[in-house]
């Protein structure tokens, strides 16, 4: 298999003619906003055992611990801003729409930074830190309160060594309708993705004629198979990452470097080409 190209001019010419662009994103796109990734240096899963925090079994065993972790993540992300990569994608989407073309962001991220940058119609494969679901009646609602409940105020990150949690279950967030225990509206390991989100994703992938895959290690399924599947169908796929991933060899382009630099460069050139 030939090596992926890093020829920006070639990528730009693809961008000029594409009509249905899909942008797949992962934690690396938010790294330069100051939000930790999962698997790289400083990554959350390097510090914390994922099975103790991001599985339905973990929540059943210790909901206070899981809430402390997600409360901390909510607070961190609320204090951060979208970066130049999020903004360049939002601007590109607007421009393409004015030309009768479309750009759809399909993200694994739960930080809402694409929305906050102004991108519309974002598909959030793994949910959102700012949505909550009742474990009893299954009602889902938005909650951007800081803190989400008084008992979690001033709690920092859980101690990765002890993973102790002090908040009593009755003081955790509860459903305003039925009073059941609430949980983060996040897709944990071993849980199925929302079938409506997956159906919509499939529709966009089916009609996509150019794909950008930005800041993901491409190890978590099903998201990890989307870009290689498109490439196998002959769709040009460009990876933007600080390092190569398990998917790189199957893709048409690889642009090495921080997304906040490489993505605006790639999309800005597209805009000036059009004038
Ligand atoms: C930069 C940068 C910069 C840094 N610029 N780049 C085979 C088939 C199907 C399923 C499975 C399978 N094998 C195993 C499974 C199950 C599992 C899975 O995939 N496990 C893998 C670890 C192998 N998948 C699931 O359980 C999923 N559900 C499912 O498949 O249901 C069916 C099923 C049911 C029952 C049993 C089995 C299957 C659900 C997955 C849910 C993932 N949830 C998490 C946590 C919740 C969200 C949260 O708390 O925030 O989602 S895990 C975590 O990983 C998070 C992320 O969305 C996800 C992906 O991580 P991402 O975004 O790629 O981040 P990193 O850190 O890994 O990578 C960052 C990248 O950025 C790196 O490449 C850096 O180089 C780069 N980077 N700085 C550009 N400045
Ligand atoms: Zn309820």
TrEMBL record:
The active site is at 126 (proton acceptor). Residues 1-275 form the Deacetylase sirtuin-type domain. In contrast to class I sirtuins, class III sirtuins have only weak deacetylase activity. Difference in substrate specificity is probably due to a larger hydrophobic pocket with 2 residues (Tyr-70 and Arg-73) that bind to malonylated and succinylated substrates and define the specificity. It is an enzyme of class 2 (transferase). Its cofactor is Zn(2+). It catalyses: N(6)-succinyl-L-lysyl-[protein] + NAD(+) + H2O = 2''-O-succinyl-ADP-D-ribose + nicotinamide + L-lysyl-[protein]; N(6)-malonyl-L-lysyl-[protein] + NAD(+) + H2O = 2''-O-malonyl-ADP-D-ribose + nicotinamide + L-lysyl-[protein]; N(6)-glutaryl-L-lysyl-[protein] + NAD(+) + H2O = 2''-O-glutaryl-ADP-D-ribose + nicotinamide + L-lysyl-[protein]. One of its GO terms (molecular function) is histone deacetylase activity, NAD-dependent. Keywords: Metal-binding, Mitochondrion, NAD, Transferase, Zinc. NAD-dependent lysine demalonylase, desuccinylase and deglutarylase that specifically removes malonyl, succinyl and glutaryl groups on target proteins. Has weak NAD-dependent protein deacetylase activity; however this activity may not be physiologically relevant in vivo. Belongs to the sirtuin family. Class III subfamily. Zn(2+) binds at residues 134, 137, 175, 178. This is NAD-dependent protein deacylase. The keyword Kinase does not apply. Its EC number is 2.3.1.-. It comes from Plectus sambesii. Gene3D superfamilies: SIR2/SIRT2 'Small Domain (3.30.1600.10), TPP-binding domain (3.40.50.1220). It is found in: Mitochondrion. NAD(+) binds at residues 26-45, 108-111, 215-217, 241-243, 259. One of its GO terms (cellular component) is mitochondrion. The keyword Mitochondrion applies. Substrate binds at residues 70, 73.
């Amino acid at each position: 298999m030939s090596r992926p190209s890093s020829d920006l001019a070639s990528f730009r010419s693809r961008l000029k003619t594409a009509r249905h662009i899909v942008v797949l994103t992962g934690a690396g796109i938010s790294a330069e906003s100051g939000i930790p990734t999962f698997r790289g240096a400083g990554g959350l899963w390097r510090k914390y055992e994922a099975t103790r925090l991001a599985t339905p079994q973990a929540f059943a065993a210790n909901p206070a611990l899981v809430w402390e972790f997600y409360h901390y993540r909510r607070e961190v992300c609320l204090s951060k801003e979208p970066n130049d990569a999020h903004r360049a994608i939002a601007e590109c989407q607007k421009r393409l729409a004015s030309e009768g073309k479309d750009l759809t962001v399909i993200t694994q991220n739960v930080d809402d930074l694409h929305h906050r940058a102004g991108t519309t119609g974002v598909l959030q494969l793994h949910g959102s830190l700012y949505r909550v679901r009742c474990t009893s009646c299954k009602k889902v609602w938005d909650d951007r309160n800081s803190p989400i409940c008084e008992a979690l105020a001033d709690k920092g990150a859980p101690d990765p060594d002890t993973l102790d949690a002090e908040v009593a279950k009755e003081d955790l967030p509860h459903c305003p309708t039925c009073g059941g225990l609430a949980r983060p509206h996040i897709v944990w390991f071993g849980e199925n993705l929302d079938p409506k989100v997956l159906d919509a994703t499939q529709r966009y992938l089916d009609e996509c004629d150019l794909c950008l895959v930005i800041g993901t290690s491409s190890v978590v399924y099903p998201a990890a198979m989307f870009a290689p599947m498109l490439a196998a169908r002959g769709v040009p796929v460009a990876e933007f990452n600080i390092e190569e991933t398990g998917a790189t060899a199957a893709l048409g382009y690889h642009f090495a470097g921080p997304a906040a630099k490489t993505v605006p460069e790639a999309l800005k050139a597209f805009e000036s080409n059009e004038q």
